[in-house]
């Protein structure tokens, strides 16, 4: 799963990318190039299983991030970067920090205006994709009549009308057929949007209030949009500390946990992902699957052979396992369930797949 980090210039994109992925893009990389890195999604359940099994390997779920060069107002084309097209979601870094030393490309700090500006660039990119496609479809339809061409034209026209009126596509109702038709397109406003508000140190103690102060009215509660607040310099400082120091420091600031951790969890659930866990002496691991995935498909997330040879899934919810103390106890208590192919896997299920071959 992959997020493209977008935002105006000097909003803190690369700083956040480095904090999330631990990857420091070298000077050699060049400013206008995209950087790619992987962030581990923190999961206390996995940590607990690891403490229980002492496995050789501990493998958290990951989200990949691609740091994309800054977007300029009216740039339009800058949004048509090939890197953006394949992304599962967009992470828009919006600047709320003030700084004399770092100029704001729009002259002053105004997060709601900047998000609007970004959204406009996304809409313009979609408008041009839709218009081009309609033009090609029009020509094709003069040559031959086919119901699938009519269906595609109708779906793309619906999108064109919406973006032309300034409505992001994540906000319109699409039928399953329309969604299927549009899957091959790279409409940017159809992608889930994680807004990351990068606040100054003076706001670090009240991250929750920062989104309200930024006044993101029309995005608040909009479908496919989630908010996250971070203070980059503070996160940088925390990164240098030991886990104990971190906990102490966060407590002192009155913060429940690390903003970066919350950001990663928000990114994960914005994409509709849940985790199931596998536990053993060799490896404890969290696996990402879309919510609603069947047991047999979940097996395929591990290996196609396990999917093909699926016999049964032995399932126990994480909490039940912890209360019992071990899988062996779950077995004797009868709390280890045997589930078939169609069982819908739940977030936090600890699973052992029985398979042939
Ligand atoms: N004071 C302050 N400075 C920040 C913050 N976040 C980033 N900066 C600084 O702002 C400058 C730009 O940060 P970058 O992370 O390079 O921003 P960017 O969005 O990647 O910039 P471009 O790639 O040029 O578009 C750097 O000097 C950062 O140290 C913040 O929250 N507070
Ligand atoms: Mg950058």
Question: How would you describe what is shown here?
Answer:
With 357 residues, the chain is α/β, with parallel strands linked by helices. It has 3 domains: 171 residues, Rossmann fold (3-Layer(aba) Sandwich), CATH 3.40.50.300; 70 residues, Obg-related GTPase Ych/YyaF, coiled-coil domain (DNA polymerase, domain 1), CATH 1.10.150; 64 residues, Roll (Ubiquitin-like (UB roll)), CATH 3.10.20. 41% of the residues lie in helices and 20% in strands. Helix 4 runs antiparallel to helix 5. It is flat and about 65 Å long. The mean pLDDT is 91. The protein binds guanosine-5'-triphosphate and magnesium ion. The site of guanosine-5'-triphosphate has 19 residues, from helix 1 and helix 8.
Question: Topology, please?
Answer:
Elements: E1 2-7, H1 13-21, E2 35-40, H2 44-53, E3 57-59, E4 62-67, H3 82-85, E5 89-95, H4 111-143, H5 147-164, H6 176-182, E6 193-198, H7 207-214, E7 225-230, H8 232-239, H9 243-253, H10 259-270, E8 273-278, E9 283-290, H11 295-302, H12 304-308, E10 310-317, H13 318-324, H14 327-333, E11 337-339, E12 349-355
Parallel strand pairs: 1-4, 1-5, 3-9, 5-6, 6-7
Antiparallel strand pairs: 2-4, 8-9, 10-11, 10-12
Residues 13-14 line the site of magnesium ion (MG).
């Amino acid at each position: 799963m992959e997020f493209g980090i977008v935002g105006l210039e000097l909003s803190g994109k690369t700083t956040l990318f480095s904090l999330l992925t631990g990857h420091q893009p070298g000077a050699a990389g060049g400013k206008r190039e995209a950087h790619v890195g992987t962030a581990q999604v923190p999961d206390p359940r996995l940590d607990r299983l690891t403490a229980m099994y002492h496995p050789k390997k501990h493998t958290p779920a990951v989200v990949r991030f691609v740091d994309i060069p800054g977007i300029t107002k009216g740039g339009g084309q800058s949004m048509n970067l090939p890197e953006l097209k394949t992304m599962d979601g967009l992470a828009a870094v919006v600047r709320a920090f003030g700084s004399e030393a770092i100029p704001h490309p729009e002259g002053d700090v105004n997060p709601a205006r900047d998000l609007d500006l970004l959204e406009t660039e996304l809409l313009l990119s979609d408008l041009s994709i839709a218009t081009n496609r309609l033009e090609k479809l029009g020509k094709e339809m003069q040559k031959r009549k086919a119901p699938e061409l009519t269906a595609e034209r109708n779906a793309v026209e619906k999108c064109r009308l919406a973006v032309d009126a300034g409505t992001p596509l994540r906000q319109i109702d699409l039928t399953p057929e329309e969604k299927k038709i549009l899957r091959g397109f790279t409409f940017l406003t159809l992608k889930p949007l994680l807004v990351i508000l990068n606040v100054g140190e003076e706001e670090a103690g009240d991250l929750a209030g920062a989104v309200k102060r930024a006044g993101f009215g029309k995005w608040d509660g909009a479908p496919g949009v989630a908010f996250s607040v971070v203070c980059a310099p503070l996160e940088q400082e925390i990164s240098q500390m030991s886990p104990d120091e971190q906990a102490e420091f966060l407590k002192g600031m009155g913060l429940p946990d690390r903003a970066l951790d919350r950001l990663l969890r928000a990114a994960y659930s914005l994409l509709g992902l849940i985790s199931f866990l596998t536990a053993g002496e060799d490896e404890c691991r969290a696996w990402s699957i879309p919510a609603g995935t069947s047991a047999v498909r979940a097996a395929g997330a591990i290996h196609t052979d396990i999917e093909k040879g699926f016999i049964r899934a032995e399932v126990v919810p994480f909490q039940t396992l912890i209360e019992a103390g071990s899988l062996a106890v779950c077995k004797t208590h009868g709390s280890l369930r045997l589930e078939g192919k169609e069982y819908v896997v739940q977030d936090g299920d600890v699973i052992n797949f029985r398979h042939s071959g």
